[in-house]
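User: ok so my PI wants both of these folded by tonight, can you help

Assistant: No problem, let's get them done. Here's the first:
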Amino acid sequence: MKKKPTVDIDGFIESLRETPEGDLFNPWWQNDPENDDYTNASEIRRHQLKFYLQERLGRTRFLLIGEALGYQGGHFSGIAMTSERMLLGKQAGKGIRPEHIFTSMMPCRTSKETIKPEGFNEPTATIVWSHLLASGLNPYDFAIWNALPWHPWQKSRGMLSNRTPTDREFAAGHAKLADLITILKPRQIVAVGEKAATQLTCMGLDFSKVRHPANGGAVKFREQFSTLLQTT
């Protein structure tokens, strides 16, 4: 039987270049000409994702899976459920420091400062990171990804918008998630919300589920993750 080739981080990031057709933005291999501040913005985001994953190799206790990349988070940071304000140290008051995300390079924003002077801010990202860190987890003991790794945006509203992915788009993300699990070898996979849970079920994976923090779910998310932490 032919042995399956080993997946590495560089190969994984290269594979993300394969973006499904439709209104999906690929932050690692595409630039956002209207909102990016640099011509090499996609390269910056690739490096940031690489160091984020690299520093978690062999350490990932929890792999949290959200729905899809958002314009206030990974669209400009290159990292799922992680905002520019976190990279820039603007969320230190909530216990989130840039070195919690990665230390191998100086974190960098990629959006134009004229659009958001302090960088884009994703409320869900702040809730998730602040609670995980306040719970006593080492930041390198958890990683965050999405069932759909790319950013689904609404054509009528432009790149600075989000929409629910289609089933076809979700299905295209399954192979990427499977590869990431192979790379990180997490001890436990956690679905953040119903849509992520549906995709993990479709993939036949074992996982735990917590409430998504959006739409009034922050308290329940914190309660459920704290319970999960106590029982594992």
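One down. Here's the second:
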Amino acid sequence: MNGPLIVFYVFATVLVLSALRVITARNPVHAALFLVLCFFTAAAIWLLAYAEFLAITLILVYVGAVMVLFLFVVMMLDINFDKMREGFWKFLPVAGGVGFVMAFEMVLVLWTKVDMASMPARAAVPAGSNTKALGAVLYTDYLLPFELAAVVLLVAIVAAIALTLRRRKETKYQDPHDQLSANAGNRLKIVKDVK
């Protein structure tokens, strides 16, 4: 075994173990942090496949934005997770069946023999980096889906802010209009001591 293959197996093992911890962790914050570890190890595997742009995009978009947003929502909403877990075991047969079908499909993919001679010839790799080629395709052929994804992310951000924005009873608020309309006459009130 050569060095890159050993590194791949190390990252793949960490990825699988952290993915298992994502679904078995009781605390949702711990599950989110294990998911961050999954994203980092998946990015390392992308780097081994010489897909630098996809690796850095995975870290920037998912770890830097989506997971931070998810952690804010989990920590600010005060969700009673014990109440949500009450009916967990009644869905176990359905979840087990879906998991078995997915595992069976993965085994079929791994055991299927592919005849490389019958595959069509690969197109010539364009000059430059894969980032330049991906950008050229993204902003020409897939411009509309790219813009729609940006709008969906904007709506998700606004929805997350709307969900977490709430007024607390113990917090004191000031009206800016009252502050700006104040004058010297109503700021200070002198009370004479009457004895």
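Residues 52-76 form the longest helix (25 residues). The mean pLDDT is 82. Good luck tonight!
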